[in-house]
Amino acid sequence: MSTTPPIPASPPHPPTIADAGHPLPLCPDYSPRLLLVDDEPRLLSSLYELLRDRDYQLVTATCGSEALAQLNRLQFDLVLLDLRLPDMSGHEIMDFMNARGIGSDVIVMSGDVGIEAAIGALKRGAYDYLRKPYSREELLKTVENALQKRRLAVDNERIASRLENSEKMYRYLVDSSPDIIYTLNHEGHFTFVNDRAYQLLGYTREELLGKHYSILVHDEDLERARYVFNERRVDERASRNVELRLKCKGGGGAERTFNNTLMTISLNAIGMHLPDHEVKRHEFFGTYGVARDITDRKRAEEVISYQAYHDILTDLPNRMLFKDRLGLAVIQAKRKLTELAVMFVDLDRFKLVNDTLGHVKGDELLQQAALRLKDCLRKGDTLARQGGDEFTIVLPELRDRADAKAIAEKFLESLQKPFDLDGHLVHISASIGIAIYPSDGETIDELLRHADIAMYQVKALGKNGHSFYHNSMLDVSHQKIALEQALRKALEQNELEMYYQPQVDVVTGRIIGAEGLMRWNHPQRGLLSAGEFLPFAEENGLMLPISDWMLGALCRDLLLWNAAGGEAIRLSLNLSPQYLDRGDFFEKMRGALTRYGISPAQIEVEITENICIRNPQYAIEQLNKLCQLGVSVAIDDFGTGYSSLSYLHRFPIHTIKIDQSFVKEIHDENGHYPVILAIISIARGLGLHLVAEGVETEIQERYLEANGCTTMQGYLYHRPICLHSFISVLQAQNKLAPLPGGAALDAAVAPMAIQA
């Protein structure tokens, strides 16, 4: 046992990051731990006293076994070891330390004058050998040098470990990069490439190292690659981006497009010369590059570019691309002094098919028609979809008009064959107008306008034919002007009239509402429906004054039907988007209701889904004002527009009207019509009122009623009727008891409906 004075307990040794046998970490705030081994108590005590004020942790041992026990128990930075111990030699203790991988440094202290003892200690890894008696300064210096050496060794190990971890991290990041990272020497040979090259191109690192970059570059891009990879500038201009196509190994000619970010690597050397004469030179060393695979992006850009110039439905050139090609054809015809033809093709009876069979079948018809028209063209001709059911064609290098006539006749012949739309055989025809350059116009717009005029001339003559433009056809434009003047005159001379189509509750058979529909009592053409003149009014700025007239007429009519006992019946009026966009609409509505004493609860404004996407926020503000006034809002033709269902939450909607195009699909009361069921479910879930339009058969009525829609309008009940007939219907209803299904009511008022 030790006979030295008691030594205070040492703090726990900090954990090491090294394995056994490696130097222990000596942190700046860590006190080194020393083991003092000597069998002479006086020398051991003297050694302890000498070192105790040096901020060391000191542990003593007076024999070999005690030293081994301490070495097994604690980690020491330095062992001061006497060679001659009573139970074993210092060499044996060092052998024990080496066998166990104990990495403490050892300073041997011995009074043995023989050289063999010193050689044996140094062979076993002793840091130094002090011969007794040693001086105080010699011992302290040796101890400090040993600990300093150990600190340096620990620092070096820590730096090496950090470098190793940094290199591992760098290699991981480089090899995990989604980009190809590479370096080239000054001759363009690969000196490094990460694993991404194999994943994208199929080349292993070994296959590329030492090879010239040209083995990867597409043949057509070699010249450009040679220019950019030979970049010798070293300033900020030495970095550039370039797109190249690289070959894939074993890809059967496959290639990928890469965006290469290149940077020149330069070796900057500073020569040692006379003072104040420093010379810097730049030696080209190679190129560092990052190649990002942009194949998917390029494909997406190609798709976007293609879609920008092509019609998505028919895959034909759209209006923009057609005008571009027509412009080039005009330039070429002008240079060669040749003619060209522009055709305007409008499909006859398309609207009937679209409304009867639905939009999906209408789209299929357009696709099939486009294929037939395309098969009739010559090489170099261009067929484009102008929009809707209209197509345009340019026939360059025309020999004479007979060529254009022959192609137009081929179009008509091809379209006369029936179209099979999932079992529905459909027959259509076409109206084709033809304009010839340069006699019918020398600009793109002139040629298209004149071809359009010629096409309308064919329609006016019965459709299903073709016609070349002639100056006399300008009368068509004059007729449009005359129609505009006649419509303005109709407003002044009170030729417009409101008709009403009742809405029936099929449970009670009673009329609970009516939709107001505009008619024009034309002095020459007779009674015209709204569809025959309102589109023209919208195009020519007449919609606002017509809507003003309609608002006043409805209020005047409401006074009359209220007097006939129709106070509980709500009137639905179709609101033009242009009228809603006008800022004073709300004020006009409020003023009219006040002036005529009409309850706002009797008015329901019908809007189309397209209003929701024109200017949603403004529309919401206007409709909210109406709701605050007491007027309700309905969405007309629900499901046929482009709005999101989210609008049903944002807009103050009270009623949904099922469009007649969906109702017409009902042919079996036990059938399954998911669109109608979805609309009914939406209305029920949102607590909205529901009206079905265009109900014409009892099968349709029974199906709708069975699935929760009980308010309907259509020819099964009433056609649109004038105010006088509508009031008669109301008076008859008030005299009759409620009848189921509305059949008895229709029978009672049938003479009036037919008269209307």
Automatic annotation (TrEMBL):
Name of this chain's protein: Diguanylate cyclase (GGDEF)-like protein/PAS domain S-box-containing protein
Species of origin: Pseudoduganella violacea
Alphabetical list of InterPro entries matching this protein: Biofilm_reg_signaling, CheY-like_superfamily, EAL_dom, EAL_sf, GGDEF_dom, Nucleotide_cyclase, PAS, PAS-like_dom_sf
GO biological process: phosphorelay signal transduction system; regulation of DNA-templated transcription
EAL domain ranges (all copies): 480-734
Residue ranges annotated for the GGDEF domain, each copy included: 338-471
Keyword Nucleotide-binding: no
Coiled-coil region: none
An annotated Gene Ontology molecular function: catalytic activity
Pro residues biased stretches: 1-15
